[in-house]
Amino acid sequence: MTSHEYATSPTTPALRRRTLLRAGGILGAAGTAGAAALHAAPALAEGPPAHWLRPGDPGYEESMARFNVSITHRPEAVVLAQHSSHVQEAVRYADGQDLPVAVMATGHQASVPFDDGILVSTAGMDGVRIDPRRSTAGVGPGVRWSEVAEKAAHHGLAGLAGSSGSVGVVGYTLGGGLSPALGRLHGYAADHVEGFDIVTADGELRRATPECEEDLFWAARGGKGNFGIVTSMDFGLFAVPTLYAGALMFSAEAAEDVLPAWRDWAAEAPEEVTTSAAFVQVPPDAPLPEPVRGKRVVSLRVSYDGDAADGRRLVDPLREVAPVLVDSVAEIPFTDWGAIHNDPEGPLPAYERTTLLAELPDEALQAIINLAGAESESPMSLVEVRQLGGALAREPEVGNAVGHREAAYTFFTIGVAPPEQVEDVRSYGERLIGSMVAWSTGGAYVNFLSSDESDPEDVRDAYVPEIYDRLVGVKTAVDGSNMFRLTHNIPPAVG
After folding, report:
1. Taking a C-beta distance cutoff of 8 angstroms, is the pair 432, 379 a contact?
2. Residue of 403, 178, 393 whose CA lies nearest to 303
3. Are strands 242-251 and 296-304 parallel, antiparallel or unpaired?
4. Which domains does the chain have, with CATH numbers?
5. CA torsion angle 256 257 258 262 (round to 10)
């Protein structure tokens, strides 16, 4: 999940996979297996399940199209799932062959590369239903936030969407779900899940709710894909017809005035305000006004859920801090929330690093300016501080595995690099994280973890100790063989 101030191609990996699935007949009426690319596989006892592609098959490479192409996969098979039964077949086959299983819908978060195992593509499981009476949504694991936003908006409702409409709803929510539009007002997306169906390592389809499979319900909301493959999810929506939202962009040279003013302003802002500040390297061809194209800028991103006139009065002090190059903060329908961050559509090779901050004193801001500001040689596309607090700091009524709620900010950096620049970007990202050690909580927001932060100790540090220990217990109970390890893995207990 990235946070750039620009957009690229409108063709998303999930859309390409859906096209492949339809071409192959997986999404056709009655789920017929249509194309020669799909094997008429023998029965499960004799070989792999139906609806799958092997290396060398037409469509195999396309089926793994993903947003973040910084890592590569070469699975034994890609299972193109349309129904939960396809997921069950894949898991049972993998169990019989002692193979690990990974799942991918949109491919936003890079986890770990692998050259064996089974990859279950859930992009074709893209049903959405909105219940306006109960203010809830039900989605399949292939659904993106843009689809939920459009359908919910017909009823004046909205969900706790990520920064981009191309982000998958289920994967984002299982990692916590930090909304840049509504997070401080309503908490994490995981806090509002009402139930889900999940295929566990034994191939069983289980229903997890606050009253049924309680431990599994607790663990998967925050524990990501370590416990099985979610095949449907129900969650709460909120009445949000419009936002007062957008970005104020300033010259990077103004950072020493802008960043302290933003920090102090945000500290006094009501919970209806969700906000972040970032150094952004704007591409020359970005769909943004001329004053910022090709420039490094400081972008203050603001979302206010309330009356536009009140929002204007709240934001106006930021407009007075320094000359504003671009001011897109205005009343917008919720369906335009993606314009707050203007994330790229991808695909792109993204290299990310992250930590959580307990505070943001002047010394921390100066360290960020020194390494990411106008006079720096930063190769990073974005260096962001996102304010937490508000409802994000409170435990939900039904607890989950999202921890480190005491943190005041996320610190996140991302670089988009061709092969010859990868090591420079990686080392600079690590340098940026190192500069924040004095103010870091030592934890991390799970959805921002990169493939370079998949070491077991990195994953352990993303959770508070008591939550991690409980997650290990649930993992041991439902996936003792660690089938679902091709992720930011929480291993089961040994012995």
Report:
1. no
2. 178
3. antiparallel
4. 13-121 (3.30.43.10), 130-239 (3.30.465.10), 242-450 (3.40.462.20)
5. 110
In the structure, what pLDDT confidence band is assigned to residue 141 with cuts at 50, 70 and 90? very high
- Any residues with CB less than 8 A from the CB of 15 and at least 6 apart, and which? none
Give pLDDT tens digits for 450-466.
888 888 899 999 999 99
pLDDT (0 to 100) of residue 74: 87
Residue 482, judged by CB atoms within 10 A of its CB (0-12, 13-18, 19+), counts as middle
Length of the chain: 495
Q: Does the pLDDT at position 336 exceed 60?
A: yes
pLDDT value, residue 297: 97
Rounded CA-CA distance 24/104 in Å is 18
- Compute φ and ψ for 475, nearest 5 degrees: -60, -45
Give the span between the Cα atoms of 161 and 258, in whole angstroms. 27
Nearest to 61 by CA among 106, 103, 20, 99: 20
Give strand pairing partners of 242.
333
**3-class DSSP state of 431:** helix
Q: Give Dmax over CA atoms of the chain in angstroms.
A: 71
The enclosing H or E element of 357 equals: strand 350-357
Computed over every residue of the chain, the mean pLDDT equals 88
Decide: 38 and 26 in contact? Cβ < 8 Å: yes
CB of 180 closer than 8 Å to CB of 301: yes
Q: Rounded to the nearest 5°, which phi and psi values hold at 2? A: -115, 170
Sheet holding 52-53, edge to edge: 52-53, 77-80, 118-121, 101-104
Angle, CA 368 vertex, CA 367 and CA 374 arms, to 5°: 110
DSSP string, 395-423: PPSS--S---TT--EEEEEEEE--GGGHH
Q: How many CB atoms lie within 10 A of CB 377?
A: 7
**Would the pLDDT of 23 be above 80?**
no
218-236 pLDDT tens trace? 999 999 999 999 999 999 9
Burial degree of 72 (CB within 10 A; 0-12, 13-18, 19+): exposed
Query: Distances in Å between the alpha carbon of 394 and those of 183, 188, 191, 332?
Result: 12, 10, 10, 28
pLDDT > 70: percent of the chain: 88
CA neighbor of 124 nearest in space, from 22, 232, 229, 11: 22
What is the rounded average pLDDT of the residues 164-189?
96
